[in-house]
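Long-time lurker, finally posting.

We've been working with AraC family transcriptional regulator (Novosphingobium olei) and I want a structural starting point before designing mutants. I don't trust myself to interpret raw outputs, so I'm hoping someone here can both generate the structure tokens and explain anything notable. Sequence follows.
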Amino acid sequence: MFQGSYPDSDIGGGAPLGGVQATFTGPTSTTVRFSVGTTRIWGIGFLPLGWARFVDAPAHVYADRLMDPRKERIFAAFRPLIEGLFGETADEAGELERIGAHFAARVPVELPDEERIVACHAALLDPDLATVADFAEAARLPAHTLERLCRRHFGFPPRLLLRRQRFMRSLAQYMLDPSLKWIGAIDGHYHDQAQFVRDFHRFMGMSPSQYVAAPHPVLSGVMRARLEAAGAAVQALHHPLLKHPADR
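Top reply, 14 upvotes:
Generated this for you. Predicted structure of AraC family transcriptional regulator:
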């Protein structure tokens, strides 16, 4: 949600979206690129359980899509927040209070899959998982149930989720400590550096060397802030039952 200049954005090099007060991004397996002038931004990130609770649609239908929430029926419940978040002057505390009040006022929905979503999410964070069979065993689900549940609530099939986790662990490790170089940050489940480079192109749309050559003034700070506040540098590595640090 933006106050000031509105960004021009695209996901994975797809159709651009611009001139909108807010954007809604589904589950992602590639980069979101945007350019923006002077603006203030509030971002709200949903973990899979949050998607199941607040978005009435299968996640895979909206995977790797960038949307205007004012035009999509399933996002209608968010429109009052989007339209009423900002006042004439910046008020960070008041805006945060309005965001919290919006979600607190939403009527709780019964989630038959809640325990299985949490089990799958917790299993996905295990760095020792290497195969879909390992994933299914850790989540205590049959393979076909795991496939259905992952697509509906996580947006992608189990194999791609495991591949993304492996990549995100590597990227986060490098961003937190570039002195390791890529060779020291690559996850142990990669067979070799060539496999990592292929995944880098798949998820980032560029080579590792191209990424290193680009500046990351915002992302580096965000990763360190996330690590301090949430215990993980990127959202994909957050615990499914994440609590505020003061509640730990």
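Before you design anything, note these points.
The chain has eleven helices and seven strands.
Residues 48 and 154 are 5 Å apart (CA to CA).
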